[in-house]
Specification:
Oligomer: heterodimer
Order of helices and strands of chain B: HHHHHHH
CATH class of chain A: Alpha Beta
Shape of chain A: globular
Helix content of chain B: over 70%
Distance between the termini of chain B: 24 Å
Radius of gyration of chain A: 22 Å
Largest interface: A-B, 29 and 21 residues
Number of helices of chain B: 7
CATH architecture of chain B: Up-down Bundle
CATH class of chain B: Mainly Alpha
Largest sheet of chain A: 6 strands, mixed
Largest sheet of chain B: none
Distance between the termini of chain A: 40 Å
Number of helices of chain A: 11
Radius of gyration of chain B: 20 Å
Amino acid sequence: MNTMVETMNRVTDALSAVELAQERAFCQTVGDFTVPNPRMTCRDVEVWYGPKQAIRRVNLDIGRNEVLSMIGPSGCGKSTFLRCLNRMNDTIPGCRVTGSIKLDGQDIYDKKLDPVLLRARVGMVFQKPNPFPKSIYENVAYGPRIHGLTNSKAELDELVETSLRKAGLWDEVKDRLDQPGTGLSGGQQQRLCIARTIAVAPDVILMDEPCSALDPIATAIIEELIDELRANYSIVIVTHSMQQAARVSQRTAYFHLGDLIEVGETNQIFTNPQHKLTEDYITGRFG
Amino acid sequence: MNEQEGKHPSTDLTAGHTVRRYDQELARLRTLILQMGEHVSEQGRAAVAALLNEDDCQAYRVLDREPQIDYLSLDADEEIFRLIVRRQPTAVDLRIVLALSKIAAEYERAGDKAARIAHQVLEWIEETDVLVEPVRASLQALGERALGMFERSLRAVAAFDVSQSLGIFEDEPDLDQEARELRELLNGSAQEGLSPRYAITLFYCAQALKHIGRHASNIAELVIYVAIGQDVRYRNREILIETLRHRGY
């Protein structure tokens, strides 16, 4: 009799596992993940860390001159997905990315493509400001110099000034360009990192919680800057601040346990999300 | 996970936050607004009773109690400001706060209509005219309809209940019909020798009652906005009722 009960339990467990697998396999993103004339297109993107799957069949377009925010609880895969966009995951042992990610129609995982060149086109700003232990000038000049973007010192000076101006930092540092970048305040360091990123003329800027280490005033300055940068670049930002996502982005994508649950206009996501998981997350109903 | 679960009319939309105090603050705001609505409902009943019974004491009581609604309205505003500052509501919470703020304004205006009826009662009660039977019965029917719709709006707000809201919409044609019949009756009575002042007074009262019913309709629209996330103002009522009833509300 006991054996029969055990067998029944095993069958029930197996059926539940199948149901769960089916449910996960057919997870469909709510909302339109496409945009007209996209800068980047991601199709059926899956990421594995060894045997563990971190991202499941994500389809998402990144538009030109738009800010796309990616939100979701910790461990949902938003930063993993962000790092796929400029092949930062290549540096992680055991990480495997499948599917297709294209930048202006070109597969960024093409073996012929140099990841260093890719990362110039798809720049990244990290959670903690990480200026090089060099002067403010050198922090910005380093990228253009190694990529050979300028022909003379005068051109490089101009590029450094333009980049610092675009990052809203020029007026604060123009008289101390030879001083260490690490001597700036946290907010200034983050803007220096943004200047360093835009100095190599990227098409896309990825930002992984760029304001989480900053005070509200420095955060406001960065948010203002993001809005200005949108005129020239596509920006993808991962943030844990719902208000920040609502303030800076035009589209929002919500991730949950490796699935892209919902994507849509930011206004719609924050006023009338279509998926209950999205609503539960943004209204603070997650246990 | 792939299933879009949509909105959940049966569950308490104010509950379930990780921060329990948020639940309490939303529930407290809703209770305050409902308290306001109940006051208005009592005021409406009392005003209609004063009108039908030509009872000046009742009319004075309505006017005396009117400031209570205004005070509740101020309290509700304060709660709303506090909630927005503390919680920065989004999605359904944002809809709840916005809708409750507008519902408070609807209640406040409906309370003004009850006071207007009381004022009219006090104005004509000193005249020699009396309320003749067909007009009285017609006023009573209109009052029942409008206040019935209003009380239904309280139930709709209490549970953000779409079905109750649809019930209010379904009453709208009857409200309009009864208001029209009363107006025709008053026109006829005026031709038969009813003093113009008396006819105008009753016409004002009828208008006030009809507006109370209209406030209930506005509240019903806001309840639907909270529950299903769609702004249904200015939508064709018949199609809306049919669509939502078809969806199981």
